[in-house]
Structures are given as C-alpha cells and as structure tokens.
Design goal:
The chain is α+β, with helices and mostly antiparallel strands. It has seven helices and eleven strands. It is 31% helix and 25% strand.
Length: 222
C-alpha cells in the first residue's frame, strides 16, 4: 500500500450500509474492501458511483476509477458492416427473458488475456437476485433459436451500468450493445457506464470522463 500521507487509507466495510467518499479511492480506483453483496448494498454502490470487482481468491473489492469509461447513447459508433448486420435478419433480440443464461455465458466465455473470471458464483447469485427485484437487466441475442450473445447490467433510472457482455458468434455482442444504446437514447437515458477503458468499447464510441464529472451526471443528470 502506498504510504504517502496524501493517499487515504483503504476502508474496510462492516455491516453498515455506508461507503467512503469516492475521492478516497486509490490511484487505481480501489475504494473499499469487504461488506457483502446484498441488493441494498449493491444498489447503494451503483448510485454512489461504485461497483464490485474481485476474483474467487479475493475479498469483495469496491472500485470507483478516475477517469470513468462512459458512452453517451447517442454517440454509439456503428461501422458500415454493422449497419448491414443491424438491417439484416441474422439476429433476434429479447430482453430479460434469459438473465441467468446471459450471466452464466458471461462468466464462462474465454477472453483474450484473461485467466478465470470475476463473475464468481457469489456474483451470479447476487445479480440474479437484483434481476428478480427489477434492477439487473439483460439483452439476449439469438441466431437460429440459439443464444449467441448478450449483455447484462444495472438500471438505476437515467444511467445504465453495464457489467459484462458475451458473443459466441461474430458481431453478436456488438448487436446487443448497439440495441441497448439505441433504446436508451430513445428513453432519454443520460449515460451507459462502461466502468473501465477497453479498446473495444472505445471503438464503439465510449470515452473516458473525469470521475467528478461522472458523479455530476450520476447525481443530478448533468
């Protein structure tokens, strides 16, 4: 741990539903350790600009990175080839009909440069409970009646907090993400919270935003 006096010490959570200010996060974005994954704590976290991210060998870790990766729904970038896919009948979309299958696929899909998964059994159980309570949403992509892609995240009203997506065939996850952005734009949602930078998200129009500005969008819609 950095011993610089200007760095706030890491907070260890107890049973109280309370998080430290996001400004206390480390330069890497780590804010707190411990607590639980109850629906109440998770919703408080997302509404506070915080999310859990840890692996099976770690305690529960809570993050609030600066900068934050976000997408304004109207700025979704659709390539010429994807426009053809969107207009074709290759894929069919459903919503919230197979949430458990989507999160299971997200946890088991092999990803380049990634060993194992952060979507542990504990995470799956917690987010399935959030789905039952109407907070966690899924988009499912079908090809020839087979589930070939999808995504899930947390809907907190004016911001959709994306958690993970998967694709078993080319363009399936992009199809889900584009459909999500288009529908959120129509509903006048402010942002899709993508959490951390990836080249893939950037290629689709996502951008980094200072955490302070993100918190303004989160709390006040601007």
């Amino acid at each position: 741990m950095n011993t610089n006096d200007s760095i706030n010490p890491l907070t260890f959570l107890d049973d109280r539903l309370k998080f430290p200010p996001v400004e206390n996060a480390s330069p890497e974005g780590l804010l707190a350790v411990g607590g639980d994954l109850s629906p109440e704590r998770l919703i408080l976290a997302y509404r506070s600009g915080i999310f859990p991210w840890f692996d099976i060998d770690s305690p529960i870790l809570w993050w609030s990175p600066d900068p934050r990766m976000v997408l304004f729904p109207s700025r979704i970038r659709i390539s010429k080839s994807m426009r053809k896919v969107m207009k074709s009948d290759q894929f069919r979309l459903t919503r919230n009909s197979h949430f458990e299958s989507v999160i299971e696929h997200c946890s088991s899909i092999k990803r380049t440069g990634q060993h194992g998964t952060w979507i542990t059994a504990e995470i799956r159980e917690a987010y399935i409970e959030l789905h039952k309570k109407g907070y966690a949403k899924s988009y499912e992509v079908w090809e020839n009646d087979q589930l070939v892609g999808g995504l899930y995240g947390i809907d907190i009203g004016h911001i959709f907090c994306g958690e993970s997506m998967f694709g078993k065939v080319s363009n399936a996850s992009k199809f889900a993400f584009i459909k999500l952005a288009q529908e959120l734009e129509a509903k006048k949602y402010t942002l899709i919270d993508c959490q951390m930078h990836t080249a893939h998200l950037e290629s689709m129009g996502a951008e980094e935003m200072p955490r302070k500005k993100f918190m303004g969008f989160l709390k006040y819609g601007l």
